[in-house]
């Protein structure tokens, strides 16, 4: 008789090239009770690869494998009970499966258990428990969990504030490519919490901006506008602000209007600048609203003087 573990290895190697053959091998392993065989069959049923799309049949197979102690199947059941792919949502059941999978040592389940505990999804809110799972996920190499753990440590959520621990997590997350963490590192360099000063702050900000992260793009434009950590470059700042304004960013629209009104980094056009500032005010920028009102008052005063009354 073929070894079921070897059957599953061969099946996994055929998923993309011969899904039907893969399904057959997983089935052979499942027939002798091998959890990986059941899991593989379920995965292919969920994809409709090598066998008809069958989410109900997949759930049954996940359940059999989970009952046999298979952590990835527990995780998949947790995801299903969050309402994925039209499955009924049951937060308590989802959390139960996530926690069982996490406690069995399956890393993808760590942040799911953490998020449920943090926000009270299917369980009571438990920030301390959430932090413990986020830290465990971070230590297993999950970059986003590093950022979330860093945020909780920096704000004292579920624990006492731990600035050094937060910086370590933010740094790990940033190095792993999370733009939110890169932006945070930029802020920490700027305020002196992390060494490097304005130049390091601009480098971190630019790395996040290069990934298209809008808050980092806005900060990059502002640093270019102010000449902070880099040479002042008003045309480049104007270009970045303009792209963000086109995407509906109210504060960027304010900066575009201000630069056009004053002729900074672009041709001076007070009428066009006033129009853009008005648009920023309508989009919800409070500083734009204040400036528009101030400009209107100044214009009204000038009209009164011209009229002579």
Low-confidence stretches: 303-309
Separate helix tally: 17
Q: Describe the sheet with the most strands.
A: none
> Based on helices, strands and strand pairing, what is the structural class?
mainly alpha
Termini, distance in Å?
105 Å
Average pLDDT rating: 95
Task: Sketch the topology as an H/E string, one letter per element.
Answer: HHHHHHHHHHHHHHHHH
Give a count of the beta strands, DSSP E runs of length 2 or more. Answer: 0
Shape: elongated
Q: What percentage of the residues does DSSP assign to strands (E)?
A: under 5%
Radius of gyration: 28 Å
How helix-rich are the residues, as a percent range?
over 70%
Describe the structure.
- This protein has 17 helices and no strands.
- With 309 residues, it is mainly alpha-helical.
- Helix 4 packs across helix 5 and helix 16 crosses helix 17.
- The longest helix has 22 residues.
- The C terminus is likely disordered.
Summarize this structure as a short list of keywords or feature phrases:
17 helices, 309 residues, 0% strand, elongated, mainly alpha
Question: What is the fold's blueprint, element by element?
Answer:
Elements: H1 4-14, H2 19-31, H3 35-47, H4 55-67, H5 71-80, H6 91-103, H7 109-119, H8 127-139, H9 143-155, H10 163-175, H11 179-190, H12 197-210, H13 214-226, H14 234-246, H15 250-262, H16 270-282, H17 286-307
């Amino acid at each position: 008789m073929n070894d079921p573990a070897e059957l599953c290895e061969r099946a996994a190697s055929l998923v993309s090239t011969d899904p039907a053959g893969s399904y057959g091998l997983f089935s052979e392993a499942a027939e002798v009770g091998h959890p990986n065989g059941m899991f593989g069959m379920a995965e292919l049923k969920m994809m409709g690869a090598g066998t008809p799309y069958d989410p109900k049949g997949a759930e049954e197979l996940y359940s059999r494998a989970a009952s046999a102690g298979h952590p990835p199947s527990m995780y998949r059941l947790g995801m299903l009970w969050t309402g994925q792919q039209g499955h009924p949502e049951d937060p308590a059941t989802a959390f139960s499966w996530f926690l069982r999978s996490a406690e069995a040592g399956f890393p993808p389940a760590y942040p799911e258990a953490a998020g449920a505990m943090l926000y009270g999804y299917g369980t009571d809110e438990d920030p301390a428990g959430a932090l413990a799972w986020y830290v465990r996920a971070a230590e297993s190499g999950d970059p986003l969990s590093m950022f979330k753990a860093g945020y909780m440590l920096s704000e004292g959520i579920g624990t006492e504030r731990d600035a050094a621990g937060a910086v370590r997590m933010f740094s790990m997350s940033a190095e792993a490519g999370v733009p939110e963490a890169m932006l945070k590192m930029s802020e920490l360099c700027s305020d002196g919490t992390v060494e490097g000063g304005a130049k390091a702050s601009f480098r971190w900000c630019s790395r996040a901006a290069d990934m298209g992260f809008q808050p980092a793009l806005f900060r990059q434009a502002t640093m270019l506008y102010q000449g902070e950590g880099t040479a002042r470059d008003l045309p480049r700042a104007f270009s970045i602000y303009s792209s963000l304004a086109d995407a509906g960013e109210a504060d960027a629209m304010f900066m575009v209007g201000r630069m056009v009104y004053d002729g900074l980094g672009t041709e001076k056009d007070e009428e066009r600048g006033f129009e853009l500032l008005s648009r920023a005010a309508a989009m919800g920028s409070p500083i734009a609203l204040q400036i528009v009102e101030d400009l209107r008052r100044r214009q009204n005063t000038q009209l009164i003087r011209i009229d002579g009354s």
